[in-house]
Amino acid sequence: MAKTQFNTDKIKTEAVKPLFAAAGATELAVEYARGYATEATKATQAQLDAAQTRVKATQARASKVDFDTKKVQADAKARVEKLQADAKDAQAKFEARLAEIQKEAAELPAKFEAKLNEALKDLNTTYADLAVRGEKFVAAVRKDGVKAVTSVKPTKKTTAKKAPAKKAPAKKAVAKKAPAKKAPAKKAAKKAS
What we know:
Layout: H1 8-64, H2 69-144, H3 146-150, H4 156-162, H5 168-192
Helix pairs in contact: 1-2
């Protein structure tokens, strides 16, 4: 009996790919969050700078006007305070949104892991089903020889019940390989007769 050799380096490489994918997704989420933070900070700073510029312009105009400068200064100060309050409000909204994005980013690996576990469960179930089927087939070939190969018939009902429609083509491909082996076996049986 031939010994099966496994390429352990390839297995190790393939085993870590999902982990790398999860790390890449997390890094991308952090990159987006930092980008949003930078943009919001720049926008807030630009608004604050614009407000300060308007205040300085207002103060310059007020100093030229011969009105009640104290009243104009008080109005300007009130405007500045209002703009500062608006800036603080915008910053609070930004921080709340950033916290929400961080929460979503933190949940992303768990969602990915759940989907990965579901896919692995389906894969393991399919693998186990194929292993059982293969074991039965090998036992039949050992027992009956060529007759077992020629008696293989497609079982559509079993395939449809055990697996979703997505997996049915993969099982049918396995079933199609058996008839390909059947043709040479029939020729060999006819030659023997």
